[in-house]
Amino acid sequence: MVPLIQSLLQVDAEVRRVLGDPIRVYPNVAPQDTALPYATWQAVGGSPLGVLSERPPADGWRVRIAVWGRDSGQANEAALAVRDAIEAVGSIESFNPPPDDDDTGAFGISFDVRLLQIR
Predict the structure, then answer these.
(1) How far is CA 64 from CA 54, 57, 111, 112, 116, in A?
(2) What pLDDT, in 10s, does the model give residues 79-99?
(3) For residues 40 and 26, what is the distance between their CA atoms, to the nearest angstrom?
(4) Distance of CA 107 to CAs 2, 69, 87, 103, 118, Å?
């Protein structure tokens, strides 16, 4: 019961161009000394698609994504690639305040996405 954000982004050519292959996208926190740019994600909400007559056919997820770069231009290029890949199958829910850089000096962009995962 994990949103398939990794596989969704891994198959996108532009995401692979910007974030490497395999992509530098990590659940929750990137490993120490990960090369920039990279992205992190975490599920911040979700629920099954409720129907009364049968088991739910899908799960809905809200996923928070933070994209990190050495500066605003690099972070923005990576964020645009991630956004475009997600909007092919889901939607942007919100743009969030810049995430804390945890003293790395990296520039971050954060947004929440809504995904529907068919079971």
Answers:
(1) 30, 23, 6, 4, 14
(2) 999 999 999 889 999 999 988
(3) 5
(4) 27, 5, 23, 11, 34
Please give the model's pTM, rounded to 2 decimal places. 0.88
- The dihedral built from the CA positions of residue 75, 81, 87 and 90, taken in this order, carries a sign that is negative
Which SS3 state, helix, strand or coil, does residue 6 take?
helix
CA dihedral 109, 99, 113, 35 (to 10 degrees): 60
Q: What is the pLDDT of residues 32-64, one digit of tens each?
A: 999 999 999 999 998 888 888 899 888 889 999
Q: Give dist(CA 87, CA 85) in Å, integer.
A: 6
Fill in the DSSP letter of residue 100: P
Handedness of CA 85, 107, 44, 28 (dihedral sign): positive
Give CA–CA dist 54/57, Å, rounded.
8
